[in-house]
């Protein structure tokens, strides 16, 4: 009989305190808590949880090892399928993936798979446990474009398989969104992101930063001049969208990408760093996804009063439940069913407010989704100094436009099949650049699939 | 790391550096820029690629001190290294797509204001090597701030120099020199103005009545320089463009200079602006 205890709660920083610092919100389990939580898992014969994990981590096996106190073994089991467990344990939308289909969730609360994964990864780091088993070098070179989760996962698998792998990254720090997008208080950069990038390096993967593919080199020059047998494109979906409303170029209107990049990649919150960030007294964030929550909670920590403006209702918020919950706890104001129509400014061209219109949910369309429609004559103004536009992103066309023969669709996404195979021989792609903005673990899954496809492509040549 | 293999002070506030960056040297074209970080806590600072040597694998930059980060850059010495040096970025000048036969039949005018002389240099050099006719106007505050005079003289057909205070060349602004040339009946197939935003605005206003085709290179604020953030937004022909990927060069007559100048000051004016808001609150 398994342990019928309730899900072990995880310790978190007090909302009132954490609203003023950039330290991690969630402390994670200690060994005792982890073993206790692990004892809840039924060790299902046909585990439904694994099927919903995009990289198929052997969940019951690693959880059993945790329960037994064999943390090294647990880490080894996870390492077979994931090169970024400390990241995924923190930022995966577990409620709609592994935990969402845990059998215990039917009647009660699912096993805290994510928190257990995080515990194991953190324990491995703290105890210097690393897995760098790899096959003998096979002499083939593979180039990876982008050092986000897709690129890192693809690189790690190929390196384990004996390939000579080089990652080319446009920015000065590897990690992709993990570095420039997701804030420190959800994903510590030095401790977690750097360590996991180092783990990938320790497999022999080379990372060349400051190389903008499409400008510094091209996909074709990598293949033709530099002797790479295959190229994997994992360049993400980094191009910000704006609304196209009047006043959008006033001083004080920024994309979430700019706001978060200044704060995260460039560490604007840390006085030791040179990059400035302008927050003013009040910040309005437009949008309702994870990115909007991150921008809002960052602005709050930088000292602003923050309002989130979203055109549907709370039920439709695309952000993770945990993030919305945290944002509310910290005191962020949510204005639902509200859509900006104009950014207001003073005579010097600085933002003073946001003119909005009230929305209501209309009749369901063909897809069954009720889309928001404006309520006539319901305009009102919100006073604000800064407007952060968080309306989603699309892939940067730089690589596609400099790679003849690489097909893209009308959303500018690179067209690739489930194995990452593109329209161009020897060129593979995966992650956000193929799907549009999605999740860390889906990007990793795509990177791993592509690594397999690259392996068979090179072997069949 | 990207080693500084040569350093020369051109004026008390302007420094030339030749930097070891083989990949960039290999693919750089006139009109493009790069992004540097002087140290691991530094800002990402955009600078024009002023010259490149594909054989040697080096890229030359010229930096003028305007604030903290440009000062840090200028304080680095021969043998030191930049932490980061990314590029080339942006679109190359449009004329590089023309062949030498087309170019050899064309007449160009470059109008360089202050530091703008540095980015003008590789363009003139390229056009000269392709057989085009090139005239250059250089404007500087005074004689001491004039750069690249000799280099430029050896590659252009006519060099016109003016200084604000008359300490060298003709006394006056580049706009006056431009007007003089146009009024004297000179014609050009293409003009290019590079310098401070305000100078480019007035060159544009001056050139307009002459229907002189004019390109400007916009030095907006930038963060990543790859199209990821939108800090470099400018209105061109009523549409929002990202200077780092759509530019930095644009058709001068389409640019909203007033907006561009205001946006460039975004981080300069924070304190002044905070002050301004209080005053508004009072009345
Ligand atoms: C603020 C924010 C919060 C998020 N929160 C979550 C979350 O909680 N949970 C979750 O699962 N997902 C979250 N996501 C989504 C998730 O981060 C992405 O889906 C994931 O990172 C995509 O991985 P990727 O490897 O495809 O691309 P990216 O992570 O975007 O990495 C792409 C890399 O390629 C580089 N690159 C781009 N162009 C070039 C080029 N031309 N040459 C060289 N390099 C290039 C980029 O600089 C970047 O480093 C969030 C995203 C954002 C922006
Ligand atoms: C495409 C491009 C090419 C450039 N080429 C060169 C070059 O070859 N050599 C060179 O010295 N500079 C060049 N610049 C300008 C250079 O990037 C800025 O001077 C630098 O960012 C200022 O940083 P700072 O920290 O020293 O000054 P800050 O302390 O940031 O600012 C000091 C003052 O400079 C203003 N400023 C900030 N950024 C810019 C900017 N981008 N353009 C003009 N003024 C600015 C600020 O508003 C402020 O008034 C270029 C800019 C761009 C976008
Ligand atoms: S990687 Fe994500 S989906 Fe898979 S088990 Fe871990 S938390 Fe769940
Ligand atoms: S479904 Fe839940 S209980 Fe079953 S093995 Fe997976 S985690 Fe354990
Ligand atoms: S500088 Fe970020 S998009 Fe141009």
Brief summary of the model shown:
The complex is a heterodimer of chains A (461) and B (283). Chain A has 461 residues and is α/β, with parallel strands linked by helices.
Topology:
The complex is a heterodimer of chains A (461) and B (283).
Chain A: H1 15-18, H2 31-38, H3 48-51, H4 59-67, H5 71-81, H6 85-91, H7 104-107, H8 113-126, E1 141-145, H9 149-160, E2 164-168, H10 177-180, H11 189-201, E3 206-208, H12 219-224, E4 230-233, E5 239-240, E6 253-255, H13 256-263, E7 282-286, H14 290-301, E8 305-309, H15 321-329, E9 333-335, E10 338-345, E11 351-364, E12 370-374, E13 380-383, E14 386-389, E15 393-394, H16 398-401, E16 427-429, H17 432-435, H18 440-459
Parallel strand pairs in A: 1-2, 1-4, 2-3, 4-16, 6-14, 7-8, 7-14, 8-9
Antiparallel strand pairs in A: 5-15, 10-11, 11-12, 11-13
Helix pairs in contact in A: 2-4, 2-8, 4-5, 4-8, 5-8, 6-8, 9-18, 13-14
Chain B: E1 2-11, E2 14-20, H1 22-27, E3 33-37, E4 45-48, E5 51-53, E6 58-64, H2 68-75, E7 81-82, E8 84-89, H3 100-104, E9 107-113, H4 117-129, E10 133-140, H5 149-153, E11 158-163, E12 170-171, H6 174-183, E13 190-194, H7 197-207, E14 214-217, E15 233-236, E16 239-242, H8 243-246, E17 249-251, H9 257-264, H10 270-282
Parallel strand pairs in B: 9-10, 9-13, 10-11, 11-12, 13-14
Antiparallel strand pairs in B: 1-2, 1-7, 2-6, 3-4, 3-8, 5-6, 14-17, 15-16
The complex binds flavin-adenine dinucleotide (2 copies), iron/sulfur cluster (2 copies) and FE2/S2 (inorganic) cluster (FES).
Strand order of the largest sheet of chain A: 3-2-1-4-16
Mass-distribution shape of chain B:
globular
Distance between the termini of chain A: 54 Å
The number of helical runs of chain B is 10
Describe the structure.
The complex is a heterodimer of chains A (461) and B (283). In chain A, helix 2 crosses helix 4 and helix 9 (149-160) runs parallel beside helix 18. The radius of gyration of chain A is 23 Å and the shape is globular. Chain A is of the alpha/beta class and 461 residues long. The longest helix of chain A is centred in the last third of the chain and has 20 residues, at 440-459. Chain A is built from 18 helices and 16 strands. Chain A starts with 14 loop residues before the first helix and ends with a helix. Chain B is an alpha/beta fold. Chain B has ten helices and 17 strands. Chain B has helices at 22-27, 68-75, 100-104, 117-129, 149-153, 174-183, 197-207, 243-246, 257-264, 270-282; strands spanning 2-11, 14-20, 33-37, 45-48, 51-53, 58-64, 81-82, 84-89, 107-113, 133-140, 158-163, 170-171, 190-194, 214-217, 233-236, 239-242, 249-251. In chain B, the strands form four sheets. In chain B, strands 12-11-10-9-13-14-17 form a seven-stranded mixed beta sheet, sandwiched between helices. Chain B has a five-stranded antiparallel beta sheet with strand order 5-6-2-1-7. In chain B, helix 5 links the parallel strand 10 and strand 11 (158-163). In chain B, helix 6 runs parallel beside helix 7 (197-207) and helix 7 (197-207) packs antiparallel against helix 9. Chain B starts with a strand and ends with a helix. At the A-B interface, strand 5 and helix 13 of A face helix 1, helix 2, strand 8, helix 9 and helix 10 of B. The complex binds flavin-adenine dinucleotide (2 copies), iron/sulfur cluster (2 copies) and FE2/S2 (inorganic) cluster. Residues 53, 55, 57, 59, 82, 88-89, 92, 94, 97-98, 113-114, 117, 441 of chain A line the site of one iron/sulfur cluster. Residues 33, 43, 45-48, 62-64, 66-70, 115, 118-119, 219-222, 248, 264-265, 267-268 of chain B line the site of one flavin-adenine dinucleotide (FAD).
């Amino acid at each position: 009989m398994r342990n019928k205890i309730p899900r072990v709660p995880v310790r978190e920083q007090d909302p009132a305190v954490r609203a003023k610092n950039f330290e991690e919100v969630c402390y994670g389990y200690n060994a005792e808590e982890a073993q206790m939580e692990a004892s809840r898992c039924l060790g299902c014969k046909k585990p439904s949880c694994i099927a919903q994990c995009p990289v198929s981590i052997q969940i019951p096996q690693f959880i059993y090892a945790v329960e037994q106190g064999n943390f090294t073994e647990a880490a080894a089991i996870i390492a077979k399928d994931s090169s970024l467990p400390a990241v995924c344990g923190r930022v995966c939308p577990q409620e709609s993936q592994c935990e969402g289909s845990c059998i215990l969730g039917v009647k009660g609360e699912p096993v805290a798979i994510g928190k257990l994964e995080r515990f194991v990864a953190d324990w491995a780091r703290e105890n210097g446990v690393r897995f760098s088993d790899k096959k003998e070098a096979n002499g083939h070179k593979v180039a990876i474009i982008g050092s986000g989760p897709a690129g890192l996962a693809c690189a790690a698998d190929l390196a384990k398989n004996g390939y000579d792998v080089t990652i080319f990254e446009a920015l000065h720090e590897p990690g992709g969104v993990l570095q420039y997008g997701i804030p420190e208080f959800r994903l510590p950069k030095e401790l977690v992101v750097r360590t996991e990038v180092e783990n990938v390096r320790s497999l022999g993967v080379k990372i060349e930063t400051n190389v903008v593919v499409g400008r510094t080199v091209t996909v074709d020059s990598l293949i033709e001049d530099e002797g790479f047998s295959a190229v994997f494109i994992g360049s993400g979906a980094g191009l910000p969208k704006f609304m196209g409303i009047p006043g959008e170029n006033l001083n004080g209107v920024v994309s979430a990408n700019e706001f978060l990049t200044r704060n995260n990649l460039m560490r604007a919150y840390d006085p030791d760093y040179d990059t400035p960030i302008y927050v003013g007294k009040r910040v309005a964030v437009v949008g309702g996804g994870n990115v909007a929550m991150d921008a809002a909670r960052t602005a709050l920590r930088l000292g602003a009063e923050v309002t989130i403006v979203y055109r549907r209702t709370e039920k439709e918020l695309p952000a993770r439940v945990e993030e919305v919950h945290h944002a509310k706890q910290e005191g962020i104001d949510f204005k639902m069913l509200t859509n900006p129509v104009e950014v207001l400014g003073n005579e010097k061209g600085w933002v003073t407010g946001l003119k909005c219109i009230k929305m209501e949910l209309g009749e369901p369309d063909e897809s069954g989704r009720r889309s928001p429609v404006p309520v006539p004559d319901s305009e009102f103004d919100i006073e604000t100094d800064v407007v952060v536009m968080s309306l989603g992103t699309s892939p940067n066309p730089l690589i596609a436009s400099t790679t003849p023969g690489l097909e893209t669709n009308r959303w500018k996404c690179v067209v690739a099949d489930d194995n990452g195979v593109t329209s161009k021989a020897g060129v593979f792609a995966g992650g956000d650049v193929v799907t549009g903005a999605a999740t860390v673990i889906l990007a990793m899954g795509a990177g791993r699939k592509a690594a397999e496809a690259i392996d068979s492509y090179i072997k069949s040549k | 790391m990207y080693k500084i293999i040569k350093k020369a002070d051109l004026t008390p506030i302007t420094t030339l550096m030749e930097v070891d960056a083989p990949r960039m040297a290999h693919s750089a074209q006139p009109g493009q820029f790069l992004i540097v970080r002087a140290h691991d806590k530094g800002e990402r600072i955009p600078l024009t690629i002023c010259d490149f040597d594909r054989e040697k694998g080096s890229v030359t930059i010229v930096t003028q001190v305007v604030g903290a980060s440009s000062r840090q850059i200028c304080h680095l010495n021969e043998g030191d290294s930049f932490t980061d040096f990314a590029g080339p970025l942006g679109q190359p000048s449009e004329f590089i797509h023309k062949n030498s036969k087309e170019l050899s039949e064309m007449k160009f005018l470059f109008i360089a204001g202050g530091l703008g002389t540095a980015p003008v240099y590789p363009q003139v050099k390229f056009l000269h090597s392709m057989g085009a006719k090139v005239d250059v106007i250089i404007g500087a505050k005074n004689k001491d701030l004039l750069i690249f005079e000799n280099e430029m003289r050896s590659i252009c057909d006519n060099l016109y120099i003016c200084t604000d205070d008359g300490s060298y060349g003709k006394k006056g602004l580049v706009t006056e020199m431009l007007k003089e040339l146009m009024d004297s009946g000179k014609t050009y197939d293409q003009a290019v103005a590079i310098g401070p935003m305000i100078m480019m605005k007035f060159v544009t206003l001056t050139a307009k009545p002459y229907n002189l085709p004019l390109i400007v290179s916009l030095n907006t604020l930038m963060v990543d320089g790859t199209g990821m953030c939108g800090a470099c937004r400018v209105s061109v022909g009523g549409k929002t463009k990202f200077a780092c990927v759509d530019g930095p060069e644009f058709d001068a007559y389409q640019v909203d200079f007033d907006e561009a100048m205001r946006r460039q000051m975004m981080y300069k004016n924070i304190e002044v602006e905070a002050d301004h808001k209080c005053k508004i609150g009072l009345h």
